[in-house]
Structure formats: C-alpha cells, structure tokens
Specification:
- The chain is α/β, with parallel strands linked by helices.
- It has two domains: 134 residues, Nuclear Transport Factor 2, Chain: A (Roll), CATH 3.10.450.50; 142 residues, Rossmann fold.
- The protein has eight helices and twelve strands.
- The strands form two sheets. A six-stranded mixed sheet has the order 2-1-6-5-4-3.
- Helix 1 runs antiparallel to helix 2, helix 1 packs across helix 3 and helix 5 packs parallel to helix 6.
Length: 296
Amino acid sequence: MKSFLVTLLFLCSFSIFSQETSDKAQIEITLNNYIDGFYKGDTLKLKAALKPRLYKFGYWKNKDTGKYEYYDQLTYKNALKMAQNTKEKGRIRTETKMRSVKVLEISNHIASAKVTGYWGLDYMLLSKDDGKWMIEQVIWEGPFEEDFKKEEKTTTFYLIRHAEKDRSDKTNRNPHLTEAGLKRANNWANVLKEVKFDMVYSTDYNRTKETAAPTAKANNVEVSFYDPRKMNSKEFMETTKGKTILVVGHSNTTPMFTNGLLGEKKYDMIDDNNNANLYIVTVTKDSKTSTVLKVD
C-alpha cells in the first residue's frame, strides 16, 4: 500500500511538472511569434501571438531631453499594420543579439513574461483560452541605454587661424598666402589627416580660403563661408550638430568663436605672429570641453 501511494504521488508530480513544462514551451512559442511578427513582418505569427483586445503602451527616452515620454496605446489592428509595413518596405531584421524571451511566472490561466527586442524591453501578461497561450497586455520601454548613448550626438570643432599672409602691400586688405603660408596650409591637412571632417568653414578672404583648401580637398568637401558674427547662432549649431568641423578664421575671430562655443571667455586674441594654434572644442548634450595645441 505504501509503495502504491509513493508511486501515485510520483505520477501526480510528474504530471504537474509535464503540464508546466508544456505551458512554458507554448508560451515561448507565442513570444517568439510576437518577435517574428515585428522583426520579419510576419502578420500570421503576430495574429497567433496577440489577443484582438491587446492593450500595449510604453515609454520612449527622448534623445534630446533624456526623459522618458509616454507613447499611446498600440492596438491589435495597428500592430498588424506595423508588421505589414515592415515587410512591404523591406525593413526585415535578422539580428539575434538583441532578441530573447523569458517566461517569468505561470499560473493556471495567466502568465507573465519578458521579451527583449531591438526596440527595448517588453513586459507582458498572457492568458490561456482553449489551451492556447496568447498575449493580452504589454508595457514597454526603449531604447536600450547603450543605444541611447549611441544616439547622443557629439560635435567636435577644430579651429585654426589662417596661415602666413603676404604683408608686402599694407594697403591690400585681402592678401594671399606667402610661400610659407601655403606650406603651412598643406601641413595642416597632413597634421589633421586622421580626422574625418564633415564640414570645412572659412571666412570669405583669400588667406583663410587658401588655408582651408588642402584640408577640404583631402576630405572631399566644399569650403563653406561664414560670418564670424553669426557662428554661435542656433541655426549654425543645429546644422553642425553631431559632426566634425574645421573652422578657419583670424587672430581675433578664432578665439572669440571658441569662447562662444564654450560659453565663457577662456582664450585671448592670438598674437599677430602666431599662426600655429589649434583649438579643439568638444560639445555634447551635457558638457563642453576644449584644449589648445601649438603646431609649428
């Protein structure tokens, strides 16, 4: 009799364990169907995963403010439309690095789970009807912190004064570079060859344009002209955001612009015989840093 009871208890325990294992496997299939629906634009798998009364909402971190903002409910109908658009526009994702499913808890009729997708994290509630597990509710947040940091834009400015100008005619207000100046201009391109410039700016003078030309050519970009009085404008800062820029100016405008970027008076006017200063300013959402080098 004792042996019979032990056997009966074992069989009951095995039956319960098997049922839990079966439920877990079914839930994992549902979760993977959910991911495939959004990754591959597979509306059939998405329909197999979602209840028509789906309630999904979440929070997205604004890259400009760093704050999470509420996103309205995504309905069952809109979810299918998103999947369809993914397929039609060829935005199918195949990566597996940012993809995982985890069943958190299973009860008789409901379960909870966590899904990791390219968009971020989803926590969800599932229910079982007619032996089939489907997703009822989802709350999500994104993007991943490392992805958010990648989206943060760093702007780097390299600022130099024009190279040596021809001083032989004191009445000439727009002289060209001397032979030594042309040599320095080419040397700047060599010194900065490891830097990939998105933009090169110069004032509209022969000496600054000739100084900027070799570096612009090396980076296959056109020289853009600027007004030193408007360099710290909101429009200019938005245009250059997230880029690497060379700015060629004058003994007074170069430190003035550098100070404007930093928001403080850190650098004085350059000595008239000094054509070797290189100011490097790095601007992020939270900080502004600078350094000055002398390159002879």
